[in-house]
Write a structure and sequence with these properties.
The complex is a heterodimer of chains A (about 150) and B (about 160).
Chain A (H helix, E strand, L loop, with lengths): L19 H11 L3 E6 L2 E7 H7 L17 H4 L1 E2 L10 H11 L3 E6 L2 E7 H9 L5 H16 L1
Antiparallel strand pairs in A: 1-2, 2-3, 4-5
Helix pairs in contact in A: 1-2
Chain B lengths: L14 H6 L8 E2 L4 E3 L4 H11 L3 E5 L6 E4 H9 L4 H8 L12 E3 L4 H10 L4 E6 L2 E7 H9 L11
Parallel strand pairs in B: 2-3, 5-6
Antiparallel strand pairs in B: 1-7, 3-4, 6-7
The chains are: A alpha+beta (about 150), B alpha/beta (about 160).
Chain lengths: ~150, ~160
């Protein structure tokens, strides 16, 4: 199964100069756990809910941090995020999500963001019995065979 | 009644489902390592999660209805503080005030059906129950682990 078959789109995205408050509003509005960060049409980062809430928590005795205005998404995002193409195998993307503890993987085609693969997208496939551990196993065996020759 | 005929065996699910679908509890995290008392303070809970690499804790408060606490929920609660004093007050709260109820599902339910229940409830975790007792926590992460890491190329199937 290809990632492009099950990804969520259109993608809600955010610019790196957006404030964390604005981005957090988008997360709440859409019920997402992370947003791709796009600049000049290019994926430059991913900002998770955890990144954003950590940015609002004062560290140690920094009494001004909680009221510090306008922390931007660019300051808290994860740069150069893992991304895959629409042709990537879902089983491989799931492996990547597990290995790197990712909740969202941006899907990029010709440099442009075309969608995101979320845990929820994968769960939907499991619920519909379209993706099982046996599928993942067979896909990985096929991949290993192709790599061998 | 004619002689020698046995009544057909009634299965709880079609044979193909019994054969192919893992049970929800096979893919869930055992509850015991995740259990914390409701009186545990927020900083201790965060430290425990980071030390053990956990995304969730299960808060037991003496009832059969354990509630669940995620790291993001803890951080969200701290981030919503109105200022340093409010933050300091929230940081001393007990986790029992923050944990939330999640759906309860039969532990032996086929995994796809359990996941469908999660999606229908718009939740990403459920407490699995067997014989009336909570036994495991099914999360989006545990489902992904179950389908993604059970077997790798070059290894034999466990069954």
């Amino acid at each position: 199964m290809r990632a492009g078959d099950i990804i969520s789109r259109p993608v809600t995205r955010v610019a790196p100069d957006a404030t964390v408050t604005e981005a957090a509003g988008l997360l709440v509005e859409h019920g997402y756990s992370a947003l791709p960060v796009v600049e000049d049409g290019r994926l430059v980062g991913i900002a998770t809910e955890a990144d954003m809430v950590r940015a609002r928590i004062p560290a140690g005795d920094d009494a001004t941090a909680a009221t510090r205005p306008a922390v931007t998404v660019g300051e808290v995002m994860t740069r150069d995020p893992v991304s895959r193409t629409p042709d990537s195998d879902v089983a491989d993307v799931v492996g990547e999500m597990l290995d790197r503890r990712l909740r969202v993987v941006p899907i990029v085609e010709d440099g442009s963001l075309v969608g995101v693969l979320t845990r929820r997208d994968v769960l939907r496939c499991v619920a519909q019995r379209r993706l099982t551990s046996a599928d993942v196993w067979h896909d990985r065996l096929d991949l290993a065979d192709r790599e061998r020759g | 009644m004619t002689t020698g005929e046995r009544a057909p065996v009634v299965l709880a699910a079609p044979p193909e489902v019994l054969d192919d679908d893992p049970r929800a509890r096979d893919c869930a995290d055992p509850l015991e390592p995740l259990l914390v008392p409701a009186a545990l303070r927020v900083p201790a809970a965060l430290a425990l999660m980071r030390r053990r690499g956990l995304d969730h804790l299960v808060v037991r408060d003496g009832t059969h209805q354990p509630r669940v606490l995620s790291e993001v929920a803890l951080l969200r609660r701290l981030a919503a503080a109105a200022g340093p004093e409010d933050h300091a007050r929230r940081a001393l709260e007990s986790v029992g005030l923050i944990a939330r109820a999640v759906p309860r599902l039969p532990a032996d339910m086929p995994l796809p059906d359990a996941v469908a229940e999660l999606l229908a409830a718009d939740d990403d975790m459920a407490v699995l129950v067997h014989a009336g007792e909570p036994v495991a926590l099914l999360t989006a992460g545990s489902v992904l682990r179950a389908i993604g890491t059970t077997r790798r190329p070059g290894t034999r199937s466990p069954r």
